[in-house]
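User: Predict structure, ligand adenosine-5'-triphosphate.
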Amino acid sequence: MKETSAAEKSANIKQDSDINQDIQNVQTVGTPFSDSAKMTMRNVDVFYGDKQAIHDVSLDIGKNEVVAMIGPSGCGKSTFLRCLNRMNDTIESCKITGELKLEDRDIYHPKQDVVPLRARVGMVFQKPNPFPKSIYDNVAYGPKVHGLASRKSELDEIVEHSLKRAGLWGEVKDRLSSPGTGLSGGQQQRLCIARTIAVSPEVILMDEPCSALDPIATARIEELIAELSQNFTIAIVTHSMQQAARVSHRTAYFHMGKLVEVNATQRVFTNPEHALTEAYITGRFG
Amino acid sequence: MSMNTVDKQTNKTNTIDLVNKNLAKRYRAEKRFKAYGIAAILFGLSCVVLLFTDIIGKGHSAFLQTYVYLEVEFDPESLEIDDISDPGQIARADYTGLIRTALREQFTDANGRRDRRSLYALVSNGAGFNLREKLEDDPTLLNQSVGVWLLADDDVDTYYKSRNDDGSEAFTGRLNEKQINWVETLIANEHLVKRFNTTFFSSGDSREPEQAGILGAMMGSLFTLLVTIALSFPIGIAAAVYLEEYAPKNKFTDFIEVNINNLAAVPSIIFGLLGLSIFIGFFEMHRSLPLVGGLVLTLMTLPTIIISSRAAIKSVPPSIRDAALGLGASKMQVVLHHVLPLAMPGMLTGAIIGFAQALGETAPLLMIGMVAFIVDIPGGVADPATALPVQIFLWSDSPERAFVERTSAAIMVLLAFLISMNTLAIWLRKRLERRW
Ligand SMILES: Nc1ncnc2c1ncn2[C@@H]1O[C@H](COP(=O)(O)OP(=O)(O)OP(=O)(O)O)[C@@H](O)[C@H]1O
Ligand SMILES: [Mg+2]
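Assistant: Predicted complex:
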């Protein structure tokens, strides 16, 4: 797959040194916009102190779409993802400009409270990070915080439902009161996903959710993402191009803080539009 | 390049030889390193053993007290009691007279005022209270003659304790020859006995060693410590949480941080002076109160608690915070549900070290008058009191030999207090620590 695409585009590939010089003038190519956008980002710049980590990124994430974000290490994928539910608020030096909207609401509007925002835009982290509490309490925490269940039986139902959707119910139903940290890495990550979907968010952000997992656990999570995409909008950062190819509808390629190309996943991996994307997926850097 | 590839084979064997040669050296270094550690531990342990054997060796005898057996007649005439149902009469009566009469009857060779005074000095001048209590408990004793065990004077006590059957010289102290003879007679008649010293644990301070007890100081320390714990733990945790979680990182918070660290190193006597001028001088609180002592010790322990609590909060993994924030928990919920429970063992450890320090603190308490001679056992934070370390300081200043052993015994009580506090700390930490 890569071989052919590399051969086709070989004429367009420039030298690496040229690539790095040209990055200043890169304009996003492809189809960054969507007709049924769940989240819309326009001209987003992100600064850590004086250092700019994201340059003028515009992107839509469609409803029930899975958008994969790929790119070399340090290109700003996590930074961009964390803007979408304002997790960057915890970093004091981080400044964000531009327009970010969840449906019609401005995410960074001064009156926008982060608590309801994060209830609508959930996040799964790179390293599984279950709370040092029981499996049940891990999943029940979000609903409890947001007051989603008025009775214990309702809460039980949410926990069971979430664990089932995360594909973990069968493995843990007999030990809901044992610690969540006692599970295997893959189970922990699925627990974290269950914990996130227990709040019934509309969007789920995933930052390299499989990077700490073995291939079998990874395959299970990928299956899960495919299932979840029927009900949720998902933005996933990944270092594995195979994974991006398997789970996502559209793929966004970031390079040094710029959004270089957004296209249907199929297209990005078979016939990339931009030379930088080409260079990345053929393994010339990253 | 080519040379390298050629030599690769020989190089390999050389390397492993070199490694093997160095291995012995490395093992030796490791053994030395271990030996240093063991030596350090042994040194520390031997210091502890030395301290404990010295203190226990000196202090163990304070847990026994000598009692004298006397036949006492509750003579209503000399007691001036005509109505036994009147508690006032029982309370006012002169019991010392009874004891003196009993002593005179037993040792008829005491003639002349000086002799008699020596004779009376064999029994503690507090022994009258024992008789009163007896009569109060059982009024039918009036008119009867009963055998009672009375508190011996500290000189008799010291003599009896230092006296060995092997005939070696006993410590006579202030006892004169006649007194020694009387004591020997008492011993021969088995009218002298050593019993567990309940007085030491049930009464306050006294000028007379045999009547002096540690309870007053213990209660004083307890009340002081309660005030300290009640104030410094919540204030310290609140300050640490604010500084770690909410405070903006700027010059001002840096300034606060530097000052807290400075305060932790300020000599405690300065906190005493501060307490003297603020609580007693400005707020006009009374001297010698556990309340004031607790306030001063709060000032002193706060920096320790804030610093250790901040360290404990810092050590909570950021991934847990992220997880909770990502679910939409508010900052306060993150702190209350996740950060504090995870930081609590560390906070408690730091706090209890602070409290143990406060318990052993003397200097600031001297400044606010908790060094006064107080006989009554305090019943609350607003009763004048002294504290264990101050009591130790006071007794160690007294010349009587009986106070020397009581000083050591008081140190033992203080150490027991400290050990139980530290045990509690370890137990709490084990309990609160999440093992998952
Ligand atoms: N907290 C921070 N403070 C300052 N600079 C930061 C911070 N976090 C990230 N950066 C910088 O921002 C840039 C983008 O970082 P980011 O973590 O978004 O990269 P990434 O694409 O997620 O990389 P990776 O694939 O390795 O996770 C990097 O140059 C990084 O050094
Ligand atoms: Mg990243």
